[in-house]
Amino acid sequence: MKRVLPAITAVLILLISCVSYAAEFVPLAANSSVTVASLSVDGPYEIRSILTPSTAEYRAATIYFPIDADLPVGGVAISPGYTQSQRNINWWGSRLASHGFAVLTLDTNEPFDRPETRAVALIAALDIMKTENRRRPTGVSFPVIFPYP
Predict the structure, then answer these.
(1) pLDDT in tens, 53-71
(2) Which residues touch 82 (CB under 8 Å, ≥6 apart)?
(3) Nearest-CA neighbor of 96 among 2, 22, 4, 1?
(4) What CATH homologous superfamily does 4-135 map to?
(5) Phi first, then psi: what are they for 18, rounded to 5°?
(6) What is the model's pTM?
(7) d(CA 2, CA 106)
(8) Rounded distance between C-alpha atoms, residue 77 and residue 105, angstroms
(9) What is the pLDDT of residue 96?
């Protein structure tokens, strides 16, 4: 538990920072009632998930998305903590999707992947979200809310 609490705290801080940063570029959603407190329980949206194939940057991934949210929805990619796997963070995918976000959780190629490698995996994950949006008839838009080259 000692190792899990700092990881959860770090993810919460990252999520809050990302949402604040993203708000400057894209309105978060019609549902502006999403708060840190409301994220502690499941949201109002029904969700689905799809598995995506592995890539050179990561081993496996799952995209969670709301099926009845107003479009577009914000997109978020989440990498597990050091030595952790996707099963340790998959609850983030369903929880955030139930609040109107499209979320990709991934397994790193190795549990000891360095932060630089994980950053490359996260950028690849956002590209996969864009590709899946164009390829699959999911009815959900995955706009990338973080500009990158």
Answers:
(1) 888 899 889 999 888 887 7
(2) 111, 112
(3) 22
(4) Alpha/Beta hydrolase fold, catalytic domain (3.40.50.1820)
(5) -65, -45
(6) 0.69
(7) 23
(8) 6
(9) 92
